[in-house]
Amino acid sequence: MSDSVVTTPKWGSTEMLPLPGRFNTAVRSLVAQRRAATDGPWKDTVFERQFDIFSVEDARAIEREALDSGYRFEYSATVSLDSEPDKYKRVDREARTFTEGLNSDGRRHVGVGDNVIKKSQTVTGPVALVSTIEQVMDFLTDGIPPGTIAVIDDSGGTLTAPIIEGFAGVICLGGTVRSHLGILAREYDVPTLMNCKINDLKNGDVVELEVTAAPPASDAYELGDTGHARIWLIENEG
User: Fold this and answer.
1) In contact, 161 and 150? CB cutoff 8 Å
2) Coil, strand, or helix at residue 24?
3) Do 89 and 145 touch, CB atoms closer than 8 A?
4) At which of 68, 91, 126 does a domain end?
5) pLDDT-derived band at 144, boundaries 50, 70, 90
6) Which of 123, 143, 194, 206 could lock onto 169 through a cystine, CB 3.0 to 4.6 A?
């Protein structure tokens, strides 16, 4: 499918996102072509031959063309960063939102979050701050180093969906355990903390995720009873 100009919708507004505009333009074009080649009143075509005009397979073919052309869901993957930067904070910036402390064994308590899947053991590994499509493409091409724990924002569930199962753990700076990322984490059995508050972790810092903590109760977010899973800094890269 060529990158043709998106036509103005009948009702006087344009699609805000590039993919719906591209998809809908292709649908309109195909329907117009087939309608032009069809005899008979429009009402007969709509009610009796609608699947000759446009079918499920047509929709799938348009989707395949878009994906095969290299389309990436960039808007969905980065929308939180663009729309609410102060709330979600880019993971490549400092995020000083947690008062840290030292444990008796010298580990530094640098964050809290909501555990998605209760595990029998904690998870330890170096962090990778993931906030761009280019980083995800590099991981797809070169592979994810063993043990990597991803630090992402709320839209990072979409951003990292193609590689989520390759991480040893995930620290998400937004969302809840019932969000889309929480569902993916359970599906792929990836230890994940949601709704995290952390200090300024840097690429390569080794952390321990307390995924032995119980997930939040069903009314936890209404009551504010969250943040019981702790994040410990084991080794500081910087």
Assistant:
1) no
2) helix
3) no
4) 68
5) very high
6) 123
